[in-house]
Amino acid sequence: MSENGFVALFSGINVGGNRIVKMAELRAFFEELGFTDVASYVQSGNVVFRSAQTDIAALTQTLEEAFEKRWGFHSRIMVRDAAWFARLVADNPYPEIAEAPTKLHAMTLEREPTSDEIGRLAERCTGPERFEVKGDILYLHAPDGLGKSKFAEILPRTLKVPGTMRNWRSVLALAEMIGPTR
């Protein structure tokens, strides 16, 4: 049986010196669970792996439960496959910003937001940022960077759809690591 490539995006680990998880330990954890070709990218919790399992919801549940048991706290984990990452890159509504990876971000959302949820967020986006939602991805152009963005600060509690943000450099690196769809 052939194995499929996936990326697990963790939220809420290794941020501000809290909930520290060493990447070597996280890679070993994935291998103990039977996943192969395990690799991590930067410290914020991005793990590329292969699995014969194709049910993303089941993979997510397995990982979240095992992670909480091992580390003693919950981390929301978004598992996505190679086709999803290829679409994420191809659908970028701001290609002119792609060369400035600290100004372009993609937020992986747990689910596709409703038009009402997107509308509420649009009302709060008064500039200089701009965003676009495509399915379960929110693209954010923050011209002054994420750290200075007041909009990025209010985004999660305004949208109310759980998600995790990555800058465009991370998006491209993960897309390359997961490889082409088979």
UniProtKB/TrEMBL annotation:
It comes from the Bacteria. It holds the Pfam family DUF1697. InterPro entries: DUF1697 (IPR012545). SUPFAM superfamilies: SP0830-like (SSF160379). This is DUF1697 domain-containing protein. It comes from Mesorhizobium retamae.
